[in-house]
Structures are given as structure tokens and as C-alpha cells.
What does this fold into?
Amino acid sequence: MNMIVCVKQVPDPEAPPASFQVDAASGRMVIAPSVNPVISPFDEQAVEAALRLKDAHGGKITVLSLGKDAVPHVIKKPLAMGADELILLQDDALEGGDSWSTAFALAHAIKKIGQYDLIFCGRQAADWDAGQVGSGIAELLGVPSVTLARKVEVSDGKAVVERVVPDGYEVVEVSLPALITVSNELGEPRYPTLRGIMATKKIEPIVWTAADLGVEASQCGVAGRRTRLLKLFKPVKEGRCQLIQADSPAEAGEKLALKLREAKLL
Amino acid sequence: MSDYKGVLVLAEVAQGKLAPIALELLGAGHGLAQQLGEQCSAALLGNGVTALAQEAIAYGADRVYVVDDPLLQDYQSDLYLAAMDKIITEASPQIVLLGQTSIGRDLAPRLAFRRQTGLSMDCVELSIDPETRLLLQTRPVYGGNARATFVSESRPQMATVRAKAMTPLERDASRQGEVVAVAAGLSPSMIRAKVVHRVKEEVEGIKLEDAQVIVGGGRGVGGPEAFKQLEELARILGGAVGASRPPCDSNWVPASLQIGLTGKVVTPELYIAIGISGASQHMAGCSGARNIVAINKNPEANIFNEASYGVVGDFRQVLPAFIAKVRELVGK
Ligand SMILES: Cc1cc2nc3c(=O)[nH]c(=O)nc-3n(C[C@H](O)[C@H](O)[C@H](O)COP(=O)(O)OP(=O)(O)OC[C@H]3O[C@@H](n4cnc5c(N)ncnc54)[C@H](O)[C@@H]3O)c2cc1C
It folds into this structure.
């Protein structure tokens, strides 16, 4: 079975909120230097979903990532977890895109790879939280998609996917090839093994440019966008917390109840 | 682009009624259409839903496009996509709104790519720029650490809207509107991803989305046992229990209790957050709470920037006394 997983490198989304600031003048995010780049967590779970299928059925996993700023040890993590191949889309012409231009470039890369049974993406990237690229790739390739997967199995030439819904889950059967977006309910991604990390050292990423994909500069990156960012700002917070002072934690608990009563919240 | 006119909203149906998000979108769509001096339409998809068209009109639709088909009994991605695509072709709206729901999350991006147009997901604010007359689409980014306003460079301008971000209109049964039955040409052979089975993991008691009081537990409560105490507190207050993501991921509580950017959006009068650090992705789901109360042992925790009342301390010592006092005060 041939699987492709799309991953994005993002600033660690679990870094303290204060590390994410907005420069009002330029309308750009300013990320504190202490924030490490990571693979977007849902994308790591997408890698995990593919690895579980590889464990069960064998096959090949190709990891695909768009972005010039990829840090080698970060972007290679899926290889250390057990993926087989890494393709990086790196070109100025591909930068600065929105969901549309990103999906456009990734879909062309997938066409170029050619052989695939399943494509996996995270449900949304943890920086812009756009939540569109997976479904967009599927639409551009003309393959069916199942979103928000918590479990994926393959049998008889089709995938059986458990899709998270607010009050439980749906079981979805989909013909192959198909695209699946993965949610955190899938479970923790595995840690890279030492052997995996060593093996990774020998795998050189394949780098493709816009020309390799056969796409015009006018169709991708900034030029290919369908949306334009007008304004970026920090939401206003009131931030007036009354902290309960007391001699003991138990007393604080009681005083809190009294305070809430006084405020007519109980 | 002048061929595109008016606002179209997807009016989702749940348990034989218009879903709350449908009413919210109709309210928003109606307002935007008025600013543009154009009409607001609703798309109504399902089996035996034609009767609800009048209801959509009462809540603000000037026209309702209905695809009433037994195949649409439950959500099936490929069929809903085909039906919405057809309605957009027929209505040619300049704005299309869907809910940031289970359906909207799945359908909106595919639909936008099919129409080769831009989309902003999870918008919390929508307005019309008075000069350009473009739809301003504002949504949280970076896990809620910032907000961004986008405009579309293509038509229709598409957005999904977060639950409870918009206000429905008062129901007005005297409102007039037009009902248009659309032949979408659906057939079972169009289904490539087929929902074969639905499993409900409903928790007992009040639904999180409806609860006026929510007691939320985080990683800091340490395990499933502590949730018994939280349940006790919720019961006394007539509320529901929710959680941040780690307790769900660790199976201390069902995944359906997750509050946040990728969980449920809740807007209770009172949210009591226990052992929750207040990560932006969690706050994205509960910052609409009228009052947030935090119990956390770390005085630096971000939750104290969001809360109106707080106790810095170990919940194991604070909570029993708090619960006892609450019980005494509310007399249960
Ligand atoms: C793209 C993305 C989407 C996400 N979506 C969501 C989402 O929808 N919902 C969500 O909740 N999270 C979401 N997350 C995860 C989020 O970033 C945080 O990791 C998560 O919310 C942290 O949960 P927590 O506060 O329970 O745990 P922690 O951050 O580990 O905080 C635990 C807190 O408990 C306190 N504590 C520990 N022991 C005690 C004690 N004995 N007494 C009192 N206090 C104690 C600690 O001081 C700490 O503040 C998402 C993350 C990403 C990247």
C-alpha cells in the first residue's frame, strides 16, 4: 500500500500565549525566539495513522511538506518514526500562499508522485488553523475524503474510518484512493526510535520546486491565493482576576463559594 | 463579479428542526444582506424537510432552496456536496455561510475548492466593508492567540461561522418568502465515502452546549477519580462536566466532553476550571462564558488572565471545602 502524509512545520502551538505577539504595523505574527519549530501535532497523528497501517499491512509512506524554512531535524521526525521517504516543496514561488495555493501545490506534488492508495493530512495546521488543505487536495485530485478520523483500517480495497462527531462517531467506508484528515482522538503518535533516528541520517530529502511540479508561478504561493489577509490583531482581554486570599487552601475554597454567592453566581 | 448577488446560508436540520446554528446563520445572513441591499437565502437539505422552509423564512430567509430527498436523511459528504454545488449554481450568491459544525467542517472546504473560491473557517465576526462592500471575515488564528480578518479574492465569498457567535432574529411567522424546490439529481452511485453506521457516546445529564454551569477538569486533576468530585459539584449546581483535551486524550472522560478550538464551544453563565492551564486552544471554546472561575496551583497559569475569580492552590485541598460550602449555600 502506498501512503502519502502531508505535514507542516509550525511554531510549537503549546508555547505560552505570551510568546505569540502581533506586530500591528506590519500585520505579522511575531513569535518569541524561545518557541521551537515542531511538526503540527495533528500532522504527527496523520503520520501515526499511516504507520499503524504500515505495521498491519506493510507498504510505503512518503511524507510531503511545503515550506522553505523546514529545519532538518524537525521535518525529518516522521522518517525517524518510521516513514520511508521525504519530499520537500521549496521555492520562493510557493511561499506566502493561503489554503488554496497550498493545496494546489501539494495536489500537484501528489500527482507527480503518482502512485497512492491513501493520503493523510492533519485536521488543521496549528498555526493558521485553517482546516482546509486536506479536503482541498482531495477535491483537486478528484478523490473522496473523510475528515476528522480517530481510527483507520483497510480491507478489501477500501478504508473503514471512524469519524469523530460531537456526540460519538460515524463509521465511514470509502473507496481507494482516498484522503483522510486525522484528529487527536486517534491517540498519541509514537516516539522515534534510536534506530529510526539513525536510519534517518541516511535519507536525504527530495526537493521539488514549482517548475518540478509543472505549475505556473501565477497559480501558487502569493499569486495563487483566493483570500487576502487584511488585518491581524490580538483579541482584547479584560484580565481582572480577583484572587481569593486565605490562610489555608480549605478556607480559600469556602471563601470562593461565598464570593460567588455574593456575585449571585450560585 | 456583479452576477453574484445575495447571501446564501446552509440551514442545518437536527432532530427534525432547524438546528441552533441555522437560526444563527439566518440572523447573520439577514443582517449582511440588508447591508448590501440584497436578499438572504437558505439552503435546506434533508429528507422530509420542505415543511421547515417556512420556519427558515420566519427566521430571516427571503428565499429557501430545498433539496428534499430520502438520500439526504443523514449527512453524506458526497451528496451534500453535490446538492450545495447545485444550489450555488442556481442561486449565484456573493456570500455563502455554513456553520463550523461537524457538517460544515467537512463540507465547506470541499465546496469552496469545487467552486474554486476562497474560504475562511471558524469565523467569529462577519461584516461588510462599507467602502469595498466585501465580506470581512474575522477568525481566530494561532490557536486563538491572535485574530485575523480576511477578504476573498474570488466569488462566492465563503465562510464557516462558529456556534453562538451570531444572534438569531426573533421568530416572525408573518414574514413572507419564496420556496424553491431544487432537483439536484442525486443518486446512490455518487456516494464514495459512505457513512454505514453511527455510534452515539452520549453522556447522561445536561448537554454541554446547553449548560448554564460547567465544571471543567484539566490534566491537573490527575486522573479519572477526581472527575467524580467534579460531577458532584456539577450536580449540585445543576450543570455539566467538561474537560480540556488531555483528560479526553487519556480516556479519563469521553472525547465528547472536550471543550476548545477542536472540541465544543460552550457559553455558560459560570465556568469553573479546575487544573486547567488556560491554553489558547482551550479558551477558544469557553471564552464566551459569562464568568470564569479558576482553581490552579500555579499562580502564573494563563487561566488567571481569563478568569474573574480564582484560587491559587492544590485542588485536592481547595475543592472539598468549596463543594461543602456550595452545597450549604444552594441547599442541596
Ligand atoms: C491545534 C491544537 C488544537 C487544540 N485543541 C484543543 C481543544 O480543543 N481543547 C483543549 O482543551 N486543548 C486543545 N489543545 C491542547 C492545548 O494546547 C493544551 O495542551 C491543553 O488545553 C492543556 O490542557 P490542560 O490545561 O488540562 O493541561 P496543562 O496545560 O498541562 O495544565 C494543567 C494545569 O493544572 C495545574 N495543576 C496541576 N496539578 C494541580 C493541582 N493538584 N491542583 C490545581 N492545579 C493543578 C497546573 O498548574 C496546570 O496549569 C489543542 C492544541 C493544538 C495544538
Remarks:
- Chain B has nine helices and 18 strands.
- Chain B touches chain A through 91 residues (CB under 8 Å).
- The longest strand of chain B covers residues 193-200.
